[in-house]
Design goal:
The structure is a homodimer. Chain A is α+β, with helices and mostly antiparallel strands. Chain A folds into 2 domains: 95 residues, 2-Layer Sandwich (Phosphorylase Kinase, domain 1); 203 residues, Aminoglycoside phosphotransferase (APH), C-terminal lobe (Aminoglycoside 3'-phosphotransferase, Chain: A, domain 2). The first copy, chain A, contains 9 helices and 10 strands. In chain A, the strands form 3 sheets. In chain A, strands 1-2-3-5-4 form a 5-stranded antiparallel beta sheet, covered by helices on one side. The first copy, chain A, has a 3-stranded antiparallel beta sheet with strand order 6-8-9, covered by helices on one side. In chain A, strands 7-10 form a two-stranded antiparallel ribbon. In chain A, strand 2 and strand 3 form a beta hairpin. In chain A, helix 3 runs parallel beside helix 7.
Chain lengths: 323, 323
């Protein structure tokens, strides 16, 4: 929630010119996004989004992210697509940072999702999974199961500062999930961060998906599990099975889950909750409490994790029994 | 540089509807502005700016600020003008805050002003001073000479934390300026904060002025002195007399300064430097060093203040001798 890199009007005007986007009419730093610097540009050819990639985004991953957005857009998914400069490049340098311009996606994100939104996001997630086929770059999931223990080691000695139960809970979950993590599920491109602020609606219509900077190759059903965590808990942390049912119905209307995927859903959802618990706990301990960037409470994911641990079968997520 | 108040999509859609601005297409929190929360809206009728007024803006002043923008725009000045809702109101409430929608002003602010920009801003400032005539609300300048000593008292005991010379310097300047402050100069509406980020250009053309939230009634020449401080020092704090000359030439091409105003310019410029030194020092001591809102270095104004103290005559600002 900040502009990390200031760009001068002269530099920006020259940058825009090299894209053939006409003249610069206005640009405003956007307060959303904690990872990178984002500007909303108005040029004589319309609105665009400019992103300057900051430290937390690895430059080596940028061809994957930008190429993926272009691939998905060409495959018919509504998402921002990178603009090529007059030399054909998507990735350039501005103010000493890697930088790219992407098309502007209309829509607003839904602060209080309803059941109908969950169905639409399920459908869109499945479309993304299909659209990702044939993309020829790959990126390992750094925040998948093999990444969790190293991430935890970075703050294990301070986890108690968040909650006294946290060290035991995390150790137990790491062991349980490492032992039980399913292999052999269908792999593909996953979004890996499809929270409500990454899904735009225009009125009742889902207008598109944004923010592919956690996208990677992993089990498609794991992405479903992440999205269940992101959309189907109420603000009191209770699980709303009607929303989950709608999300899964929307998903399966485009891409039916296999029996193995259905069976794996509880453990995948538990893993997804742990993944967000770990990154939020890390950020919580490494962000000053009075910084203006808002810290997200890791304990929200302890609540989710406990729900998933108590689940008896995929039916608890509103999935009908595997046929 | 932050969004202080989050607004939900539902609340915003209802808010927009009461203005007859069509449907909401997009809204983004803007990172600029440290006082209030700003959103750039796209509606089916075009782009608009939404401001939610936070603690530091007194609700009692809002009719003055909004009425002034409307008055200035009607008088032909290029500036945002408040949009009236379908009941004719300019000031409403959103997310528990006073809120207003203003028109979107095209243009970008110049990060490295050149002489030609200074001439244009001088001209625009004089036009603002003429356009302000006939506006029937008034607002005292809380940050004028009578406000400086009370402001200093709030942090006098900590001023030494910024620089050991600061307490003596400020005490001496307060006494000198209180004794020498000119009376009887022409009064009117002043912008009082016309820094480069409040002046927009489209290419070489000045496209308008923004941010009237320090505007008040005071000596017009004091506004010229503030603007000289804001535009005519280089990044090494040296005074650029060519820029000052251009600014004053631009100003006088629209509204010639009186002999009394020319004569007063050095003391007014010194006062203006003290005013920004005081508010910056206050903010410096009251903002956490690791907050993401950027603190502005008060010592920059010590350098400016010392320049003004050494000035011998109005000619040092590039003013020809009074005729």
């Amino acid at each position: 929630m900040a502009v990390y890199t200031e760009v001068s009007d002269d530099d920006l005007a020259a940058f825009i010119a090299s894209y053939g986007l006409g003249t610069l009419v206005s640009y405003k730093g956007i307060a959303e996004g904690v990872e990178n610097t984002n500007y909303l540009l108005q040029t004589s050819k319309g609105p665009y989004f400019l992103t300057l990639y900051e430290k937390r985004t690895s430059p080596a991953d940028l061809p994957f992210f930008l190429g993926l957005m272009e691939h998905l857009a060409k495959a018919g998914l509504n998402c921002p697509t990178p603009v090529h400069d007059i030399d054909g490049q998507m990735l350039r340098t501005l103010a000493g940072r890697p930088a790219a311009i992407v098309t502007f996606l209309e829509g607003v994100w839904i602060r209080r999702p309803q059941v109908r939104h969950c169905q639409a996001v399920g459908e869109a997630l499945a479309k993304l999974h299909l659209a990702g086929r044939g993309f020829d770059l790959t990126r390992a999931n750094a925040l998948g199961p093999t990444g969790w223990r190293p991430l935890y080691r970075n703050f294990a000695d301070r986890a108690r500062e968040i909650s006294s139960e946290l060290p035991d809970l995390i150790e137990r979950e790491l062991s349980a999930l490492e032992a039980a993590w399913p292999a052999g599920l269908q792999q593909g491109i996953i979004h890996a961060d499809l929270f409500p602020d990454n899904v735009f609606f225009l009125g009742e219509r889902l207008s598109g998906l944004i923010d592919f900077y956690f996208a990677c190759n992993d089990a498609l059903a794991y992405d479903v599990a992440i999205t269940l965590n992101a959309w189907c808990f109420e603000s009191d942390y209770s699980f709303n099975v009607t929303k989950a049912q709608a999300l899964l119905k929307g998903y399966q209307s485009v891409r039916p889950l296999s029996a193995a995927e259905r069976h794996a859903l509880p453990i995948l959802a538990r893993g997804a909750a742990l993944r967000f618990l770990l990154t939020r706990a890390y950020d919580w301990l490494h962000t000053a409490s009075d910084a203006l960037v808002s810290r997200k409470d890791p304990m929200e994911y302890v609540r989710r994790l406990k729900f998933h641990c108590a689940v008896q079968s995929p039916a608890d997520y509103g999935l009908e029994a595997a046929r």
